[in-house]
Design a protein that fits this description.
about 270 residues; alpha+beta; six-stranded mixed β-sheet; 11 helices; about 50% helix; about 20% strand; elongated
Length: about 270
């Protein structure tokens, strides 16, 4: 079965990436799945590819469920005070940054059902045991997730106005202006950065104050990320992180932080 695992590695990694949204975490999931495969008795497995998919999915599901218990603090970028924005746009990877952002809003069981069924054509009969649901319930979870993906509100496409809001956010972050931050954040704003999820204007504003910490070492340039205003930060000239902002009605409704090095490499043309 290990030989089969290696043959399926590229596809299994794609499954893990869709589930977790991070190449680094996907590789961790594959390592754990490999160990489980090596220890398992697979003599009676009739469909190795399907069996391996469920092993990877189960590992990813456990990781998703554990995420909120292991939040981390984000490093702090410094504000770029130059008037000219960065001219290069940040391109989406093969999944699409917008899709990854939406997937991050789903509950673990919803994400698993949607990703496995809609992206990898795994039958609901095979998905159901992974989440301790009936096939009908798994179908309902996927349907609910699909609707959330389809109903995602369109962001404000006026990039100059988006950039003004983002610039105000960065300025307030650097100055430690809590009220200034709150004023540009929607009351229900969601900040997502890997395992970290923060909801609410004041909660996000408090977290954003941490951005000042690395002000002496980071350089920020504005960019367009997945069609939305954002910025990329570099430390000693090396790409360190990217942030995209969903702006609606002049306020920030969502912030998505990318720090996974491989994903960053895929985003930058």
């Amino acid at each position: 079965m290990i030989a089969q695992f290696e043959q399926e590695r590229t596809r299994l990694r794609a499954v893990a990436h869709r589930m977790l949204g991070s190449f680094a975490e996907a590789d961790d999931a594959l390592q754990e799945a490999w160990l489980r495969t090596d220890r398992a008795d697979t003599s009676e497995v009739e469909n190795p590819a399907a069996w391996l998919t469920t092993v990877v999915a189960r590992v990813c599901l456990n990781m998703l469920r554990d995420r909120r218990e292991h939040a981390f603090e984000m490093p702090d970028p410094v504000i770029d005070t130059a008037e000219e924005p960065e001219q290069r746009a940040v391109a989406s990877d093969e999944v699409g940054l917008a899709m990854l952002i939406v997937l991050d809003t789903l509950k673990p069981d919803e994400r698993l059902a949607f990703v496995l069924h809609d992206m990898f054509a795994v039958p609901f009969d095979d998905i159901a045991p992974l989440i301790d649901k009936t096939p009908a319930a798994a179908r309902q979870l996927a349907s609910r997730a699909r609707k959330r993906v389809q109903d995602r509100p369109a962001p404000n496409v006026d990039l100059p106005k988006q950039r003004e809001v983002v610039r105000a956010f960065l300025k307030a972050s650097q100055e430690g202006d809590l009220e200034g931050l709150v004023s540009v954040l929607h009351p229900d704003v969601v900040l997502r950065a890997g395992a970290l999820e923060v909801i609410g204007g004041r909660a996000v504003a408090g977290r954003a104050n941490l951005f000042r910490r690395f002000a002496s070492t980071a350089e920020v340039r504005f960019a367009v990320i997945g069609g939305e205003a954002g910025f990329v930060s570099r430390v000693d000239g090396v790409l360190f992180s990217a942030m995209s902002f969903t702006v609606r009605d002049g306020r920030i409704a969502a912030i998505h932080v990318i720090q996974d090095r491989e994903q960053l490499a895929a985003l930058i043309p």
